[in-house]
UniProtKB/TrEMBL annotation:
PROSITE patterns: N6_MTASE. Residues 29-243 form the DNA methylase N-4/N-6 domain. Gene3D superfamilies: Vaccinia Virus protein VP39. It is an enzyme of class 2 (transferase). This is Methyltransferase. One of its GO terms (cellular component) is cytoplasm. InterPro entries: DNA_methylase_N4/N6, DNA_methylase_N6_adenine_CS, RM_Methyltransferase, SAM-dependent_MTases_sf. Keywords: Methyltransferase, Restriction system, Transferase. PANTHER family: RNA METHYLASE-RELATED, TRNA (GUANINE(10)-N2)-METHYLTRANSFERASE HOMOLOG. One of its GO terms (biological process) is DNA restriction-modification system. Belongs to the N(4)/N(6)-methyltransferase family.
């Protein structure tokens, strides 16, 4: 499959991320943010805007059983490893349904865990079953290839963004606001503030940022907003079209600010 859309500062590829990543040169990416399918579409229910709705998001989010899910995560992580620079780093977002599998695989690959960040959602959906604690956070794993490689961490900038105090590993950020969904909806869209922190903390201007599961394109918006280059991959045409609308809108907005 050819490039879906391309401009001077971003490229979007349509297809399986493992196949599309083979088109990139080895060690050509500075930072990866991956928000893989959590594989939660199991016919359950949740609450959205005060209504009970299905948790099913699409075929791409269905589990094929523990062993197959682990194989899926191993495959895309190894594909990402090939294109990540030695001094680069990777962020992965997930819940307890998948993040522990992913962390184990990273350690098995020899990766060094830099941080585990908890994104706390003060306005998370309520617990409909009332049989456990209300899920109100997601985990972000930040890792690099080995401990010996020096990674980028913009410590002073993070301190500046946190009122002069050290940025901690608990991020209190509300779920995605309506204004960030004006170009269309995605069932698992991340708020821009999460991706801004990820990109500003661990990359520099001009760096290449990769998202192998681009979804709604929030990683790309945060990258362009902060003068990074972006590569996004997704199987779903509708999500790539949504991403393209958001990226071109961000280009226009950036142009008007200059």
């Amino acid at each position: 499959m050819a490039i879906f859309k391309e401009k001077s500062n971003f490229k979007l590829y349509k297809g399986d991320c493992n196949r599309q990543l083979m088109k990139l040169n080895e060690k050509s990416v500075d930072l990866i943010f991956a928000d893989p399918p959590y594989l939660l579409s199991n016919d359950g229910i949740t609450c959205s805007n005060g209504r009970m709705v299905s948790v099913n998001k699409g075929e791409w989010d269905k589990s094929n059983g523990f062993k197959e899910d682990v194989k899926f995560h191993k495959k895309w992580l190894k594909s990402c490893d090939r294109v990540l620079k030695d001094e680069g780093s990777i962020w992965i977002s997930g819940t307890y349904h998948c993040i522990h599998q992913i962390t184990y695989i990273l350690l098995e690959m020899g990766y060094y865990i830099i941080n585990e960040v908890s994104w706390f959602k003060p306005n998370a959906a309520p617990n409909m079953g009332c049989r456990c604690f209300t899920a109100s956070h997601e985990t972000l794993i930040w890792a690099k290839k080995t401990k010996k490689f020096r990674h980028t961490f913009n410590y002073e900038l993070m301190k500046e963004m946190n009122d002069g105090k050290q940025m901690r590993s608990m991020w209190l950020i509300p779920t995605t606001p309506k204004k960030e969904k004006m170009h269309g909806k995605h069932p698992t869209q991340k708020p821009l503030e999460v991706l801004k922190r990820v990109i500003l903390s661990s990359s520099n201007e001009g760096d290449v940022i990769l998202d192998p599961f681009v979804g709604s394109g929030t990683t790309g918006v945060a990258a362009l907003m902060n003068n990074r280059r972006f590569i996004g991959i997704d199987k779903e045409k509708e999500f790539l079209e949504l991403t393209y609308r958001r990226l071109t809108d961000e280009e226009i907005n950036n142009g008007n600010k200059k």
